[in-house]
Write a structure and sequence with these properties.
Elements (H helix, E strand, L loop, with lengths): L4 E6 L10 E5 L3 H10 L4 H6 L4 H11 L5 H16 L3 H11 L5 E8 L2 E3 L9
Antiparallel strand pairs: 1-2, 1-3, 3-4
Helix pairs in contact: 1-4, 1-5, 3-4
Length: about 120
């Protein structure tokens, strides 16, 4: 059985909430990573956290040039596609990287009313 959701536990509350736990359905994890990446204001960090080096190189080219919005839109579509191609475990790691990893204490995977240490739900918490 595979996890249906993943919960990220922080030392403090998640932005815009009063909770230190953020639970995301596994099928939405790619979109959440993409959204978190889009929210990055520091271009160096944005480049460093892209899913692969090819995208990072293209990002660098776009930042250094004066291209039309359509070029950026194609790039964003490529980034979204790259996130969608990642495994849930890679996405969970990427989500942590994009959301202040020093403050995230634990990640648990959920199936029904039980929590697991892994996305395959082999090891119950």
């Amino acid at each position: 059985m595979k996890a249906r959701d993943v919960s990220f536990f922080k030392k403090n509350a998640w932005k815009g909430t009063y909770s230190s736990i953020l639970t995301i359905p596994v099928e939405s994890l790619s979109d959440k990573c993409f959204g978190a990446w889009l929210d990055i204001e520091d271009t160096n960090f944005a480049e460093a956290t892209l899913p692969d080096e090819k995208l990072a190189g293209r990002f660098r080219e776009l930042v250094d040039s004066n291209v039309e919005q359509a070029e950026w839109d194609r790039f964003y579509a490529s980034v979204g596609k790259a996130f969608s191609a990642m495994s849930v475990d890679e996405l969970a790691s990427k989500f942590i990287e994009l959301n202040d990893p020093a403050t995230i204490r634990r990640v648990l995977w959920g199936y029904g009313d039980k929590w697991y240490l892994d996305s395959d739900c082999d090891y119950e918490f």
